[in-house]
Amino acid sequence: MNQKEFRLSVLALIILLLAGNAWLAITDPVESNYALTAREMLEAGDFISPRIYGNYWYDKPIFFYWELILAFKLFGVNEFAARFFPAVFAFLNVGLVYWFAKKLYSAKTAICSALVFATTTGFFYLSRAVITDMAFVFFFNAVLVTFYLAYRSGNRRLYLGSFFFAGLATLTKGPIGILMPGLILLIFLCIRKRPGELLRMMWLPGLAIFCAVGGYWYYQMYQLHGQDFILNFFGVHNFLRATVAEHSRDDVWYYYTLIFLLGFCPWSFIMLYQIKKRWHELREKVRARSVSESTVFLLLWAFMVNFLFQMMATKYLTYTQPSFLPLAILAGVLLSERLTMVKKVAAGAWVLYMILTFAGAVPLCDHRSGRLTSEALKEVNPSQRPVSNYGDYPTSLVFYSHDKVTQLAPREIIETTRPGGMSWDAKNVMPFLAFEDLPTDEPIIVTVQNSRADQLKHALPQAELRTLRTLDTYSIVEMIIPDEAAKQKGSNDK
User: Fold this and answer.
1) pLDDT tens figures, 238-255
2) Where is the protein situated, by its record's location annotation (predicted)?
3) In this structure, are residues 212 and 167 in contact, taking their beta carbons and an 8 Å threshold?
């Protein structure tokens, strides 16, 4: 690849990462939590304690919220700003893949690896998703990259980079940012029969760097919120997430196998074909123990990320993204002699992703967002009557409307699902309104998913409902609960 092609590839990557981001609505149920939390922190001038719906919120550490707050300050509170830093870290991840592959193998392998990494379906999704993962993937990868370069070169100072990036990974996602890469490098040193290398890792200055970068926020949060922070952050959102499935339907043994096949597409299938085609050659290399140490490290890295996350109860499609860097470099090694084919597939994927952004992602995000509902509410509710919701809670509606939206439910349900203790009820921090506390003879506005409209009628059979607007996903209705006592009195007077 000559200089002109290289520059065009970089430009194409930037276009891919930024195209359409201003039109991609903030979606429920995940993106909206991050966007609303960052907006509320910015409005409160509090850059330490995450908060949502006016309540402190301990779901994730602070780094991604800082990203969003900075972007909101630079570009305003909008979709482009929310998706800006995921795109920045996506670009950095591609650069890291290229740089590390070039260090380990060759420039041709580095180009193949970067093209593979940048055109997987998982990267396409994650590079514009308003979630913590793209920054976390970069820091996680950087921990292991700096470790291996220090190990291979004998330059002990590079180990300090591992501690630095582990601090940032911990500040982005939690303890997993140091525990998982730490376990991977420990197993690698044992496999290579060099556990003594641990003694060369400059632990005192390294731990000082780690604590300064990743520990200060945790100390501040404990000082401000005490046991509430410990219980919810470490208890619910870390220990419980690892031991109790948040979505039990996904807790199956083949989950991350499917994620690899679909998320690393189209290269997952190309890799499998190449492995099958070169099976005898690869098997002989293994038998002859001529597999390079770098390849062993990458294989272990990719395997351990998938294995460890598979062992955890809660599973998400983005969790194993840290395995994509070693997989991309391994793919680059397999495909380095077929660079022309790699370029053609990458170019085709780029065109497909550009089409999907505008023809698929834009309408899909609108379908999963409260943005259009918020715009409709301004038209049908000019007097700004109280707004409630029935069904899945639309946090994005709160983000776009800047209004309080109460969640309707029977009092018994509200009481039994309040946050407290080690359970997923800790996520129920939105404002609730019990059916029993609904005002009588006073119209309120209710948003309801179209699929749940009949359930609302069944739950409140006495309510008088008038549809004000029907949208793709939600309907906006005016609801009045008749005063039965007044009706009875009027009947008696007659």
Assistant:
1) 888 888 877 778 888 899
2) Cell membrane
3) yes
CA distances from 314 to 225, 317, 323, 394 (A): 26, 10, 18, 23
Residues 6 or more apart in contact with residue 99 via CB below 8 angstroms: 110
List strand residue ranges (DSSP E) for 317-458, in order: 387-390, 405-409, 432-434, 444-449
pLDDT for 430-486, tens place per residue? 999 999 999 999 999 999 999 999 999 999 999 999 999 999 999 999 999 998 644
- Where are the chain's structural domains? 3-363, 371-493
Residue 44 burial (C-beta neighbours within 10 Å; 0-12, 13-18, 19+): exposed
Give me the residues paired with residue 444 across strands. Answer: 479
Q: 449: how many CB neighbours lie within 10 A of its CB?
A: 16
3-state secondary structure of 176: helix
> In whole angstroms, what is the distance from residue 297 CA to residue 351 CA?
33
Is the full-model pTM beyond 0.85? yes
Is omega for the bond preceding 266 within 30 degrees of 0, making it cis? yes
User: Quick one: CA torsion of 413, 417, 418, 423, rounded to 10 degrees?
Assistant: 170
Start-end of H helices in 45-132: 63-75, 79-82, 84-104, 107-118, 121-126
Query: What is residue 168's three-state secondary structure?
Result: helix
Nearest to 285 by CA among 273, 271, 295: 295
Give the Cβ contact number of residue 37 at 10 Å. Answer: 23
For helices 324-335 and 84-104, give the axis angle rounded to 10 degrees.
50
Question: What would the two tokens of residue 379 be?
Answer: 């038209």
What is the DSSP secondary-structure string of 297-357? Answer: HHHHHHHHHHHHHHHSSS--TTTTGGGHHHHHHHHHHHHGGGHHHHHHHHHHHHHHHHHHI
The DSSP letter of residue 386 is -
